[in-house]
Amino acid sequence: MKQSFYDLTYADLATVVSEHNFNSAVAGTLFNWYYKKKQSTPCHSKISRHAAAFFDQHYDFSLPEIDTVYESKKDRAVKFLFKLKDGHKVETVLIPFNNKYSICLSSQVGCAMNCSFCYTGEQGLKRNLATSEIVGQFLQAWRWLASNRPGEERILNIVFMGQGEPLHNFDAVKTACEIFLSQHGASVGVQKITISTAGYIPGLKRWSQEIPGVNLALSLHSPVTEKRSELIPINQKYPLHEVLTYIESIPLGKKQFVTYEYILIAGFNDSPEDAKQLGTMLAGKRAYINLIPFNTFPGSRYATPDRDSVEKFKEILDAFKIPTLIRGTKGDDVLAACGQLNSTNQTIFQAQ
After folding, report:
1. CATH number of domain containing 151
2. Which residue from 85, 215, 289, 331 has the fewest beta carbons nearer than 10 Å?
3. Can you give the C-alpha Rg of the chain in angstroms?
4. Please, are residues 259 and 216 in contact by the beta-carbon 8 Å criterion?
5. Number of structural domains found in the chain
């Protein structure tokens, strides 16, 4: 079986080029062709016929197949259902803002974290995605925009907040980030990539030495041990106080903050006392809080709080001088909002 070209970092590709005595410029030419220009046709320009034939023969340039596209009628968010070579499927979301897009990437087929507020958790973990399957989501979404919304192919932010726990698939996610950041290819800015985690400590231990300076977001959701353990079961194995200790040891850039995500669930973690405990926990840290009103999904036992409760929760956090944003819901009419992804339940969605 051929190795996927999209599993190679620029350094990996340069090594292949050197080992086969091709012109050193071939690595830059190929990265530019497939990542900066995002071409789908073979690159036979500015490289020798011998080099072109070698890569055609030894590397696979195929990408995940777009199975189904769901476009929100409310806000133009786009959800892609990708079909992988082994038949598994994953979902990816384009989130529009100011004539640009953020892309929410999946890192696993399903997820092992079993978070109770997340539809993906009901799938269980099927397998990790390869780097090529992660990078492929980005490239295929860009190409879809170029074909279906010409002039709008501006994906400025990449967030690893789709299906899966990114730090549970550390190596593939790390390599994908290196590819996105490469100046020879996509050239995504380091501040434009965010990796979210439920608090998977084995990955956090590796972060400082191995993750190339991108942003970190923690799914916090409650400062109360019992509540967080219900929402995020791995809290019992990796308790929040230990997670925060590792996060605080991560060096941050001058304008860099850690984003703390907080799902607000009616009658569960949205009280003034919850807000005060959260503010006390994060006061004085280089923290930024995203408040996310719970997005319902089929079979969920939780409810969305009213707007007044959300605003009051934010007001309490404002008193602690912590920058706090209420995240607007997008794509919920096609189950594309935060916590709604589930690539095995398309029939449930279509039946609604």
Report:
1. 3.20.20.70
2. 85
3. 21
4. yes
5. 2
Cut 0.90: pTM above it: yes
Query: Domain of 75?
Result: 65-351
Which residue in the block uniquely carries the two structure tokens 């990955």?
203
Active-site hit among 43, 91, 111, 165: 91
Same domain as 196, residue 56? no
Q: Specify whether 152 is catalytic.
A: no
CA-CA distance, 79 to 346, in Å (whole number)? 12
166 and 55 share a domain? Answer: no
What burial letters (b/e) apply to 251-270, b meaning 16+ CB within 10 Å? eeeeebbbbbbbbbbeebbb
Q: Are 259 and 161 in contact (CB under 8 A)?
A: no
Whether residue 288 is found in the same domain as residue 160? yes
Burial class (CB in 10 A: 0-12, 13-18, 19+), 116: middle
155 and 205 housed in the same domain: yes
Q: Is residue 289 a contact partner of residue 258, using CB atoms and an 8 Å limit?
A: no
Q: Are residues 168 and 288 in the same domain?
A: yes
Which of 60, 79, 106 terminates a domain? The answer is 60
Report the CATH number at residue 51. Answer: 1.10.150
Same domain, 338 and 242: yes
Token pair in block for residue 277: 């405990």
Contact call for residues 294 and 303 (beta carbons, < 8 A): yes
Q: pLDDT truncated to tens, each residue of the chain (352 aa)?
A: 899 999 999 999 999 999 999 999 999 999 999 999 999 999 998 999 999 999 999 999 999 999 999 999 999 999 999 999 999 999 999 999 988 999 999 999 999 999 999 999 889 999 999 999 999 999 999 999 999 999 999 999 999 999 999 999 999 999 999 999 999 989 999 999 999 999 999 999 999 899 988 999 999 999 999 999 999 999 999 999 999 999 999 988 887 889 999 999 999 999 999 999 999 999 999 999 999 999 999 989 999 999 999 999 999 999 999 999 999 899 999 988 889 899 887 644 443 3
Residues 158 and 87 in one domain: yes
Which of 43, 104, 115, 338 does the annotation list as catalytic? 338
* Same domain as 70, residue 29: no
Whether 338 is a known active-site residue: answer: yes
* Domain final residue pick, 60, 78, 99: 60
